[in-house]
Specification:
Helices cover about 75% and strands about 0% of the residues. It is mainly alpha-helical. The chain has one domain. α10 runs antiparallel to α11.
Length: about 260
């Protein structure tokens, strides 16, 4: 157990040194969350003068944008850290060591958490002086929403890692585009009931749908709905289980086919 923990710690340190040694990487982490916060903040201010619904829910769009970026940054953090190993053709070197797939996966998840915090915290803090809105007024429910969205991002990231292992670097674009397929059905900016009836069951199969419905419940009604929280975590458990199985299967197939040493398009 201690040796496993040492290996996980070593991998986290490796990714931390890569991140610390490159200011463009650090800048990129905070760039998009901040830009989205600024753009949507001005859109929110515009709608507040033209929409009674938005006027009653000050900050709802800003909160939605900032929380959605938690999913995106979490998924991207897992994928990018793995892709850096692929680009440097380092997978073979890593797995010559006693490192195991689940240890690599845990190190990727920890680094995704670090990268997400670096990315979204500046945007959250900058919203306070610019728009006089603090997402931290959500209180403890904010932590619950953050955890639910992080787990979803981890799961999607691990699934993408498995696909890249199976398909090669030709599938690396999935790291940037896959998450946006969930955006229309996650109820980020509107309730799930807005969707067509046939699409609503599909939406409820995503953890983000429960989280954003829960967010609006806190902001509009001042109530934290435990049923939505447990729903999000139940769906997350399915996602994470599937992600674990998929990445273990992908590593096994990669070993059998020699793909750890021969990764390409």
């Amino acid at each position: 157990m201690s040796q496993s923990l040492d290996r996980i710690t070593a991998m986290v340190l490796r990714y931390t040194y890569l991140l610390r040694g490159s200011w463009p990487r650090l800048l990129e982490l905070a760039y998009w969350p901040t830009m989205q916060m600024i753009i949507w903040g001005f859109i929110t201010q515009f709608f507040m003068g033209h929409s009674s619904w938005v006027a009653e829910a000050v900050g709802v769009l800003l909160a939605a944008v900032l929380l959605w970026d938690v999913v995106f940054r979490s998924q991207l953090g897992v994928s990018i850290c793995f892709l850096e190993e692929m680009w440097s053709r380092n997978l073979g070197h890593l797995f010559v060591s006693p490192l195991r797939p689940h240890e690599l996966s845990l190190s990727l998840m920890i680094m995704a958490l670090i990268r997400t915090l670096i990315g979204v915290l500046p945007a959250m803090l900058l919203a306070i002086p610019l728009y006089h809105y603090s997402i931290f007024t959500l209180g403890l429910p904010l932590l619950a929403f953050f955890v639910g969205l992080m787990i979803m991002g981890w799961s999607l990231g691990l699934i993408i890692v498995g696909l890249i292992l199976r398909l090669g670097l030709g599938a690396e674009s999935l790291a940037w585009v896959a998450i946006f397929a969930f955006a229309p059905i996650s109820g980020i900016y509107y309730p799930i009931e807005t969707l067509p009836a046939w699409l609503q069951p599909i939406a409820w199969a995503t953890p983000a749908a429960y989280v954003f419905e829960g967010m609006r419940s806190v902001m509009f009604d001042g109530v934290f709905r435990w049923d939505l929280w447990f729903g999000a975590m139940a769906v997350n458990a399915v996602y994470l289980s599937f992600a674990t199985l998929s990445i273990l299967f992908a590593f096994r197939a990669a070993r059998e086919r020699g793909l750890l040493l021969q990764q390409g398009e």
